[in-house]
Amino acid sequence: MPAIKDILRSMDYGPAPEAAGHATAWLEAHGRSFDHFIDGAFVAPAEGQRFEVTNPATGGLLARVAQGSAADVDKAVAAARAAFGPWSALPGDLRARHLYAIARHIQKRERLLAVLESTDNGKPIRESRDIDVPLVARHFYHHAGWAELAETEFPGAVPVGVCGQIIPWNFPLLMLAWKIAPALAAGNTVVLKPAEYTPLTALAFTEIVKEAGLPDGVVNIVTGDGETGAMIVAHPGIDKIAFTGSTEVGRKIRQLTAGSGKKLSLELGGKSPFIVFDDADQDSAIEGLVDAIWLNQGQVCCAGSRLLVQEGIAARFHAKLKTRMAHLRVGDPLDKSIDIGAIVAPVQLERIRRLVEKGCAEGAACFQPGTALPQKGLFYPPTLLTEVEPASTVATEEIFGPVLVSMSFRTPDEAIALANNTRYGLAASIWSESIGLAMETASRLQAGVVWINSTNLFDAASGFGGYRESGVGREGGREGMWEYLRASAEEAEPAAGPEPAESQPSALPVADAETAMRGLPGIDRTAKLYIGGKQGRPDSGYSYTVLGADGHPAGQAGLGNRKDIRNAVEAAHQAKAWGAATGHNRAQVLYYLAENLAARAAEFEARLASLTGTAAAAAKAEVSLAIRRMFYYAAQADKFDGAVHATRTRNVTLAMVEPWGVMGIVCPDEAPLLAFVSLILPALALGNRVIAVPSSRHALIATDLYQVFDTSDLHPGVINIVTGARDELAKVLAQHDDVAALWYVGSHAGSTMVERESAGNLKATWVSHGRPRDWLSAEGQGPQYLRRASQVKNIWVPYGE
Ligand code: NAI
Q1: What spacing in Å lies between the alpha carbon of 54 and ligand 1's midpoint?
Q2: Furthest-apart CA pair in the chain: how many Å?
Q3: Whether 360 is catalytic
Q4: pLDDT at 499
Q5: Positions of E strands within 496-614
Q6: Which residue in the list 267, 398, 605, 658 is annotated as catalytic?
Q7: Can you tell me the distance from the alpha carbon of 525 to that of 554, in angstroms, rounded to the nearest whole number?
Q8: DSSP 8-state secondary structure symbol assigned to residue 67
């Protein structure tokens, strides 16, 4: 026992262990053996198999838990399906009461849940007690509110159905709350699978579900490993998959669910930058860094794992950081005075070791303070890697451990370029005393969450989720609720029955086509492609004949190919200024577009009638509605804006609506002018640049628009049109890594292909599955189009001293 004067000299903490008796008693009461929780009761695994769950800090056995088989998943899905009807029909205020009761019961059991979480996962008790569990309760309280308000805040929307939810091991109970609370609030039922390393708090949660009087079957918990997860993903009785975990598995899930009509949200990995400018409060930034990379041993998807520090202060900042690292305490997760607990599993520890070794082999300098590590258990010291190249493995791969990688930059532009130099885009942290610099940087970062002079702040009222390969969809707040609702027409079920075959254009060399067309009365010359504001011949040198309604050639359209799409994507990327323009400026251009179309309405009516055979009155109605729609989206350009979320801490949390950037839009045959305008305009209004593939059959209606575009002050490259074999071109767009989002309105087969081929860069897709849309009705216009044309970036700006 050290004397008080020794303690005062060293200012060292003594051990402050949290009692584990309560959690041990709970495990013993269950005989350290757990079944699945299905239809309100514990159900033994059909195949009788169980796996062991151990304490990563000691290696000791905690419990044996059921391994889910196909029969178990079937049973859980059946229970959730049976419960869905009554639960979704329950008035929102009654669902709210259940969610509210769950929140209350979580608070009553805070200590048990926190100790169990730290024992199972290895995270410091300080974190599970002060961060995880309070946020879990907050999530259920907040979503009790959404249940109450669902009908009025999301008019016309309906719950998705049975949700399969697969969660990781890093925040086991918190991820459960992020998944279950919005699902239930919206009226869905769930089958949730916790991660195999950390199922215990999910099992403890089942008791809360019972206490809160939730109807049987609304929440079902099936335990097991990745195979069980894959069974949930593939199950035909599931309507939505919500997954948090590795990008690799997320990509697989995207491919496996392609064409199934299952709604999908993915929250995946990250390599988030932590940017320190030379005017930052360095001591605060150091403390921020401790939270950013050493919270939960760095096993955090949004960990600030890439330090980018301005060159002039780098040496001093690294020195301060090393001093701070030497004071971090690594040890027993149940000790209230430790900073870093145990790594979740041997395989994760091995992965961290391997990646750090690789970093050193690739030339990084490695600093680890001489921190004492416990003799047994899975521990890894806080680590700093400097002299790292931006392209090296440790600078690009997610390590998911207490390892910080540092690089320096000279100018803000360089910092932004380095920060965005990643395939991920989950979060970012910016440290500067200049609000102008911080906000400018925040606006230019490709990340779903940006913390200014802060880090790792979370709240149920704010959406959380990534750009690019960090995932699709948001969790939390209003954005998160949409992931568990269907707006009419927004997500279509696959169409039943056989589909008409996609029309296959047959090629004709452009020169021959032009000769063939010359001299024919009323027939235009061959329409070209429209790329970068210019009309140009297709790369193939071929065109195809577009037939009129009378079966005779109406003209020729260019037969675009892969190269043309690539050129169009490049042109769209160069037209960045459109995204940076104000909503007001974009609105002016779109109003002008509408006026110019109106000036040529008669010409378009005639063209529509001759191409589609529609009656003159119907053609007139379609053109007139197309013009109205242009005005509607012009009006929305400066109105579909963001929000300031009411998060709990003293922050202005800005939910900024941002365009995807470059979008592909593949248009249908029906109502060819109106559908084209209805799809392109919302994307343009919000600042996207578009590569549009019009209906092959009626391509000339889109190519007639070139002159309207040319006279409307649209910047070159903002809209690019590639005609040709629609599905072939859609496939090239789906596979293109520089296309951020892709809409496809067409066949079910084409929709399946688009979803599957988009898995490469995990682009956001919106497909119609062959379900016809009534373009003349409200289905063809509205906020759902704008929501799908944008993503939300949440910027946290703290205030107060
Ligand atoms: P993982 O992605 O394999 O596991 C996450 C969850 O998915 C678990 O419940 C697992 O059982 C389940 N799962 C695994 N394969 C599946 C499949 N084919 N179909 C459906 N479900 C499946 O992650 P893992 O292997 O535990 O960790 C590997 C790496 O992934 C980590 O080192 C880290 O880089 C990253 N990771 C990222 C997380 C995040 O929050 N973004 C969370 C966990 C891991």
Answers
A1: 18
A2: 106
A3: no
A4: 67
A5: 507-509, 529-531, 534-536, 542-547, 553-558
A6: 267
A7: 10
A8: P
Nearest CA to ligand 1 atom 24: 246
Rounded Cα distance between 71 and 697, Å, is 48
pLDDT of residue 501: 62
Closest residue by Cα to residue 121 from 66, 195, 44, 190: 195
Q: Check pLDDT > 70 for residue 489.
A: no
493 is a catalytic site residue: no
> What is the length of the chain?
801
475: left (phi over 0), alpha (psi -120 to 50) or beta: beta
Going by alpha carbons, the residue nearest to atom 43 of ligand 1 is: 245
The CA distance from 185 to 190, in Å, is 12
105-129: pLDDT as tens digits: 999 999 999 999 999 999 999 999 9
pLDDT of 161-170, one tens digit each? Answer: 999 999 999 9
Residue 295 has pLDDT above 90, yes or no: yes
Which residue CA neighbors atom 9 of ligand 1 most closely? 195
Q: Does residue 750 surpass a pLDDT of 50? A: yes
Taking the CA atoms of 278, 284, 288 and 290 in sequence, report the sign of the dihedral they define. positive
Cβ of residue 51 lying under 6 Å from some atom of ligand 1 = no
For ligand 1, atom 29: residue with the closest CA: 246
- Testing ligand 1's pocket by substitution, the residue of 174, 196, 249, 762 carrying the most ligand atoms inside 8 A of its CB is 249
- Residue of the nearest CA to atom 19 in ligand 1? 230
What is d(CA 556, CA 716) in angstroms, rounded to the nearest whole number?
24
Q: Which of 164-173, 503-512, 620-629, 791-800 has the lowest mean pLDDT?
A: 503-512
Strand-pair category, 50-54 with 542-547? unpaired
555 touches ligand 1 (CB under 6 Å): no
Q: Are 552 and 521 in contact (CB under 8 A)?
A: no
Distance 792 CA to ligand 1 centre (A): 25
pLDDT band with cut points at 50, 70 and 90 for residue 650: confident
Residue whose C-alpha is closest to residue 787's, from 570, 458, 489, 493: 489
CA distance 665 to 71: 41
Query: For 677-702, what is each residue's pLDDT tens digit?
Result: 999 999 999 999 999 999 999 999 99
Catalytic residue among 163, 301, 302, 667: 301
CA of 249 to the centre of ligand 1 (A): 6
Share of the chain above pLDDT 90, in %: 91
Beta strands in 152-258 (DSSP E): 158-159, 162-166, 189-193, 219-221, 240-244
The answer on pLDDT for 31 being more than 50 is: yes
Q: Is the distance from the beta carbon of residue 251 to the nearest atom of ligand 1 less than 6 Å?
A: no
Instruction: Write the pLDDT tens digit of every residue in 355-403.
Output: 999 999 999 999 999 999 999 999 999 999 999 999 999 999 999 999 9
| 268 Cβ below 6 A of ligand 1 | yes
pTM comes to 0.95
Determine whether the shortest distance from the Cβ of 249 to ligand 1 is under 6 A: yes
Sheet of strand 427-431: strand arrangement = 365-367, 383-386, 403-409, 306-310, 273-276, 427-431, 449-452, 790-798, 651-659, 643-645
Calpha distance 656→641 (Å, rounded): 7
Ligand 1 atom with the shortest distance to the CA of 233: 20
What pLDDT is recorded for position 509?
65
Task: Give, for ligand 1, the residue of 238, 246, 350 to mutate: max count of ligand atoms closer than 8 Å to Cβ.
Answer: 246
- Cβ-contact 426, 300 below 8 angstroms: no
Task: Please write the tens of the pLDDT for every residue from 728-747.
Answer: 999 999 999 999 999 999 99
Name which residue sits closest to atom 8 of ligand 1, judged by CA.
Answer: 195
Position in ligand 1 atom list of the atom nearest CA 232 = 20
Give per-residue pLDDT as tens, 438-455: 999 999 999 999 999 999
For residues 530-557, average pLDDT: 94
Torsion region of 278: left, alpha or beta (phi above 0 gives left; psi -120 to 50 gives alpha): alpha
Percent of residues, the chain, with pLDDT higher than 70: 95
